[in-house]
Structures are given as C-alpha cells and as structure tokens.
Amino acid sequence: MTSWTPELRGRSGPLYRAIADALAEDIDAGRLTPGTRLPTHRELAERVGVTVGTVTRAYAEADKRGLVSGEVGRGTFVRDREVPAYMPKPVDLEDDASPVELGINAPATPEGDPASQALRRSLEELGRTSRLADLLAYQPAAGTTAHRVAGAAWASRFGLQVKPEQVVVCAGGQHAMEVALAALTKPGDTLATEALTYPGVKVLARRFQLRLQGVAMDAQGLVPDAFEAACRGGTVRLLYTQPTCHNPTGALLTEERRKRIAEVARKHGVLVLEDDAYGLLPEQRPPPLASFLPEASYFIAGVSKLLTPGLRIGYLVAPARARGERLAEEVGLASLMTTPLMAEVLARWVEDGTADELVVRQRQEVRERMELTRALLGSEVLRGSPMPLYHLWLGLPEGRRSEEFVAQARRNGVSVTSADLFTAGQGPVPAAVRVCIGTPRTRAQLERGLRRLREVLETGLEPLAAIV
Fold first, then answer.
1. Is 113 strand, coil or helix?
2. What pLDDT score does 90 carry?
3. Could you tell me which of 336, 447, 346 has the C-alpha nearest to residue 122?
4. Residues 391 and 336 placed together within one structural domain of the fold
5. Are residues 196 and 169 located together in one domain of the fold?
6. Nearest 10 degrees: Cα torsion 321, 325, 330, 334
7. Could you read off the pLDDT of 204-241 as tens digits, one per residue?
8. How open is the CA angle 425-438-289, to the nearest 5 degrees?
C-alpha cells in the first residue's frame, strides 16, 4: 500500500473533488503507477484531516473518471489507463422480449457484484479459523455478545447510540417486525400505520388479529394531527412507521414532524416501531424518530435493502429499560436463534468497514439508475425528491386506475405494483403504482423496462379495458 498523500494547497471547490484532481495529476505525472494500492478510506481521511465520507466520495469520483478501481475488502487501486473502463454490452431493445421485473423492491447489484465478493472472502477467512465450529452450535436467542455489539454499531450508522443488550439479532427486517408485534401486542389491539404502508405489516396484522388503522399522510409522510386524532380513541397500542424513505411513496418525514409524533405517542402511551429499511441511502437525513422517544421506541436497523437481502440478518433495537428480553423470547419460541454464521459475516463487515463500502456502492448505483429513470420517464416521476431510492411512487394520468394499469403493463412485458397492495384499512386506493428500479440485473434491462412503462403511460387505456 502506498503512503500517497494528495497535495490540496491552492485547490478550490469541494474537498472530495480536490482529492480526485490531485490523484489524477499524480497518475498523469507517473508518481502513481497502474496497480498501486491506495490508502484505505479511513487512513487517508486521518492523513488529510477530512471525514471518511469525503474520501469515499473522492474515490468514487476517481472511479467515475476511470482513474481507479475498487474491490470491497481488498482496497482501491490505480487503474491501467490503457484498459477501458467497463461498458455494458449493447442490448437490442426490439429483439429482447423477456419480461422486466419492476415490481419487486430489491437493491441493485453494482458492477462487479461487491457483496458476493465480500461474502466469498469472509467465508474463506472463517474456514481458516477455529471460530467456525462455534458458529455451528446453539447460541443465545438474542444473538451472541459479539453479534449484538455489531448490531449496536450498525444502529449508530442510523444515528442511534444504544447498548448491545438492547439489540436482538433477527433473520431480516420482516422477522424483526414479526418478533416486535408478537412481543408488544395482543389480539384486538389497534396497530396504526401510514395510510399507505408496507404490505408485510398488513399480513402480520391479520396473523396477530390486530385492528389495522391507516393514518392520513401527505407528501412529507405521516400527518401528526391525524395521528393524534387516531390516538384519542384510546385503542392504539402501537404505531408502525417508516419515516425515512417511506415505502411506497418515498416520503421523508421532517425533524419537526418526528418530534411532534413522538410527543403524541408519549402523551397517549403509544409504542412506536420504526422501520428504517432504506435509511442509509440518503446521505443527509433527520435523526431517527426513536431518538425523540427513546423510552417507548423499537427500531429496526435495516440491512437487506442496503447491503444484500440474502444474509437474512436484521437488528431490532429495544428501549434501554426493556433490554430486549421479551423480544429474545419470541425469537427463541419461533426458531431458537438466528443463523449464527450469517450474523458472524455481517458482524465482520460492520467491524472492518465492508458494510459501509457496500452502502456507498449502493448509493452510487441508485443515483445513476435514478438519472436513467428521470431521463426516460420525466422529472415529475421523482416528485422533486433528491433522495436516492430504489422505489418510486408513480402517479397515473387522469382516468387511469391502478389495477388496470398494472395489468396493461404486464401485457406489455413489465411488472409494477398496484397501490391497493399498500392501502391500510378501508382507505381509498390512489391512482398510482410503485416502480422499483433496483431489481433489473443490469441498467440495460432497467432501460428496457422503463421504455415499456413509458409506452403504457403514453398509449392510454386499451380499448377492451376502457369498455369494461
């Protein structure tokens, strides 16, 4: 690894760009040769006196210019300028008739599949240690101490400072929701959610015989006055909410609203289950709602939508006084424990910075996919939101219904999700669909799906559909 330090004196503009410019000059001058391994993000940040995020952006900018290449877990290397950067193979949009899936909400696979590379290395490392045998034995239901320490460290990335004993290791965010509802509610309780909510919580509400009450929301998310009106009836036991990157609308709840909702919940004795599945995709975001209601908030620190869904690990954080015992009991009743091997992999990724690098790669990938989406469907599709998101809430032209549009899109070779799947309670179904841009394996596949979707928007109702 080189001891390279960028010369930043006399440079103007953002620091990350200045570092990338200095790197380009040193490569052009021959001071950095192809194959040279550059300092780690943290090492260079300490050397220059900037944040790790600044260095991460600098390396991402250098990668975009074709100066360097990075591999999660191995480092960043100076690229051979004679070797062209990766370019996707052209796709003949007319000949490829395969359907395109834009209905499933999944993270994208960035170039090189860094998560798979990281998993391969982690498993190889584990295979060379004596730790492997321990991971095949029974473990505490809440997770080992080391894995709960990793969970607390991961929660800190979202802006929560918690102790390891507050963390319960679950088999993904969906499992964390199930554990929380099983531990915190009883049949007949009222579960409040945004008027449009994640479909999984609707399924769980039916399973646990809960009354689901949708609460009005607007472009900014949950409306505090509507939440208080729902609480006045005295039957709301728990609020399930996604204040950051709401699914399906993408709304971002302001800090002022988070404080107000926390005040309402405290006043009426309502517990809060905050699901932050996508919270690290935007670099700037308000503090978690849980930080304003620490005594009564349960927080799901997402992993699947930020790193990779196949690990099936998620962290459920309990209030300090609750300490997670009741939650751990529910994990034990259902499955005895969460798979220790995958929990160990994620713990290593959190500790060595691999998880942070994977998040950065996801941010970069989603920005580029959003740019493609904006170019093909128009800026209005993104509703003016600057946040990087893999799911978009697409309002339909006047006279179009959600279910009819979904069926027509499917006939045209692209799948999207109808609004009725997200409607909580007996609320009206909006004329909208959710479009997910992360699932297509390549951007060429995404482009094909978006072009088909645009055709459906432009052609209007099919004749038979209009008659029916």
1. coil
2. 39
3. 346
4. no
5. yes
6. 150
7. 999 999 999 999 999 999 999 999 999 998 899 999 99
8. 50
Residue 406 counted as domain residue: yes
- Tell me which residues of the chain have a pLDDT lower than 70: 1, 71-74, 80-97, 323, 380-386, 461-468
**What single letter denotes the amino acid at residue 168?**
V
- The reported pLDDT for the residue numbered 96 is 64
State the total domains in the chain: 3
Q: Cα dihedral sign for 212, 218, 223, 226? A: negative
Partner residues linked to 394 by β-bridges? 433
Q: Which two tokens stand for residue 163?
A: 């102790």
- Tell if the pTM clears 0.70, that is, is over it: yes
In this structure, are 240 and 139 located in the same domain? Answer: yes
Distance, C-alpha 58 to centroid of its chain: 23
At residue 81, the pLDDT reads 54
**Same domain membership, residue 190 and residue 164:** yes
Alpha helical stretches, state H, 71-215 = 114-127, 131-135, 145-157, 173-184, 199-207
Which domain range does residue 314 map to? 117-354
Nearby residues of 192 by Cβ (< 8 Å), 6 or more positions away: 213, 214, 215, 227, 230, 231, 236, 238, 239, 240, 270
Please indicate, yes or no, if residue 200 is contained in any of the structural domains. Answer: yes
